[in-house]
Amino acid sequence: MKPAEAKRLAALADCEGDAWKAKSIQRLWAGMGTIYELSCGDERIIAKVVKLPKRCDSVGDRRKAKSYECEAAFYRDGYAAQLLDAGVVVPRPLHVEARSDGVTIVMSRLDGRPGAFDRRGTETALAALARLHACFWGPRADEAVAGGLQEQGTMWYLDTRADEFASMPTKGWEGRLRLAAKAIDARLKADPMQSVVHGDPKDANFYFAADGTPQLYDFQYCGKACPAKDVAYCLCCGSSAWDAADELARGYHRDLSTALASRGEEPPPVDEFLETLQLAYADLGRWMSGWGWWGNDLEPRICRLLDRLDGGTALASAEEYGAAVAREFPV
């Protein structure tokens, strides 16, 4: 980015100074742009400059293009401001502009250190997610979708991961998971607990302030989903405190209950949340089974769920798994 463009963006963000310069700090996935730090003296701001290809032919390219539209809406249309008002620290939007080949988002710079999801870090990250979920709980999630956030939050939901689903093994426990996948996906969509989820709450998308306050960024995949999906992903893909996952999940539920109660809303029973969380772990594992495994070991949890559905032996069809999910996890 040339200094003149850095100065132009800074002026649109109501930042003073003439000697603005830009430093590239990160390339976006698939070469779709660059994140810059703009600086003038001691002042620092961030510009995310998305440049889309002329054609987005693949499912992956279309998913990424949609994600940047979503992130622009998140900052431009007041959703970041709602979270800030609710005590969730996110970048403050300074300027958003659409271009023929993409979008530019100018935001405040988060000060702190990259996320370290030890026990304490995981607790505070989950507490931030609980406040986020409470902010958009229930019908508010549908309103946010109508305003431009993702119809389905996360980047691993089944409808956008057909290639990974087709790549899943057909034998063993992963073959059983493949047969159960569509029923699990449908049950999570029908769950009474719905909100806007962050959609990618791994440790790399948190910064921790000097006082330990978690700060969230990267809102490309925020949209409507069962919030247990965020919790499962945060614990599996970011936390080093996996041996305390159940206790941490209960802590998240306490924080969610407090946040909902402060709004005069009834929190979900903890047992119902923990049941749904088991489905969310399995749903996350379905994507990884076809994409590649990473993070903490989900196999024991998924196998316990599958044993509950099929007694340890694969059922004959996806339809039979649908009946088993309805039996074990009634809505």
From TrEMBL:
Residues in Aminoglycoside phosphotransferase domain copies: 63-257
Record protein name field: Aminoglycoside phosphotransferase domain-containing protein
Lineage, broadest ranks: Eukaryota, Sar, Stramenopiles, Ochrophyta, Pelagophyceae
Species, as recorded: Pelagomonas calceolata
Source organism superkingdom: Eukaryota
Signal peptide start and end residues: none
Cross-referenced InterPro entries: Aminoglycoside_PTrfase, Kinase-like_dom_sf
